[in-house]
Amino acid sequence: MEMMKANVYDRPGHCEITEVPVPETAPHQVLIKVMSCGICKGADVALAGGGFLAEFPLLNGHEFAGYVCKVGSDVKTFKVGDRVTADNTVLCDDCYYCRKDEPLYCENFYSLGCNGPGGFAEYVVVNADKVFPISDNLSFNEAIFAEPTACAVHSMDRVQVQFGDDVLVYGCGPTGIILIQLLMHSNANRVVVCGPSQDKLDILKKYGCKETILMDRNDPGVHEAKLREIAPKGFDVLVDTTANVDVMESMIKFGKMGAKFMMFAMPHAGAKWAIDPEYWYLHEIQLIPTWAQTHCFGRALEYLESGKVQVKDLVTHEMPLDDYDKGIALAAKGGPGTLKVILHPNVEE
User: Fold this and answer.
1) Could you give the angle at the alpha carbon of 344 between the alpha carbons of 26 and 2, nearest 5°?
2) pLDDT for residue 336 is more than 90
3) Homologous superfamily (CATH) for 3-145+311-344
4) pTM given for the model
């Protein structure tokens, strides 16, 4: 039996790099040699603690790219050596929501790297219809951003920015920076970003964002006064990318009447958010949570391949798979100087 190296959680909070069997490749599947796999601060950190969709033993990692090294007998669309990434979602196509054409709510939702074996391993097996080719112009490090970009595309589908909308975004982590670029390509009149790290705001400026405000953690009144000055009537769309309930609560007052409030980041399990329902009612504020994606990978890759979404500056740390513990700790801590941490289960020969 052929073996491979993989990161495996046997229980919440405990993982190790160990040897496991290379997965079998069914007739409809493709075996991928993983070259790059990104750590998702939201999902991977939650999964490590037993949250989100975690099922143990857990082999996580849902943002991956690499080479096709084996194809199933029924697969005609790929060959050994192709450079690819993959949509990690697997849907049943038969439950109430799938038959209702709402696949994101699939009652048997299966996600590689969440409740199925993922990319923090030397190899991962994927259904061929979920595999996407990437050009030689897109590096594996860039290609792993197809998954977070797909999540951002789904969010854009949900929020439906209207022509002339003024948009306010709080926070600018790696996936937030991707979403902000999509907002910049939307019908919005202006996109204003308020974030706590100048280095991340500088990346946004480099990518063309014209209005950024440094968040003052010690005295919110400072940045809030600037927001009032530049948008006295408020904003049509409010986007939280921080998952911090205190931040979300502080944003509401910047919404116009009839504003949309989009929760783009996953709050911690059990977090409590104090809201004034009368205020929301009288202002007709729409709450729009968004998470994950299905069927958005094609569009995501078009944005990445065309350069409309840029991600090179988002990779701040790279390390071998053996350093997984170091990588997940870096991602969990975050802060200035840390955006995307990428692990390399294999290296170019």
Assistant:
1) 40
2) no
3) Medium-chain alcohol dehydrogenases, catalytic domain (3.90.180.10)
4) 0.96
Separation CA 90–CA 110 (nearest Å): 5
* Location of structure tokens 């071998």: 320
Q: What is the pLDDT of residues 198-210, one digit of tens each?
A: 999 999 999 999 9
Quickly list DSSP for 303-326: HHHHTSS--GGGEEEEEEGGGHHH
Distances (CA, A) of 344 to 77, 183, 293: 26, 31, 25
* Cβ 9 vs Cβ 15: under 8 Å: yes
Q: What angle do CA 247, 248, 254 make, to 5 degrees?
A: 100
CATH 3.10.580.10 given to domain 150-289: no
SS3 257: strand
Distance CA 302, CA 270 (A): 37
Same-fold call for 3-145+311-344 versus 150-289: no
Residue 311 carries which side chain, given as an amino acid letter? V
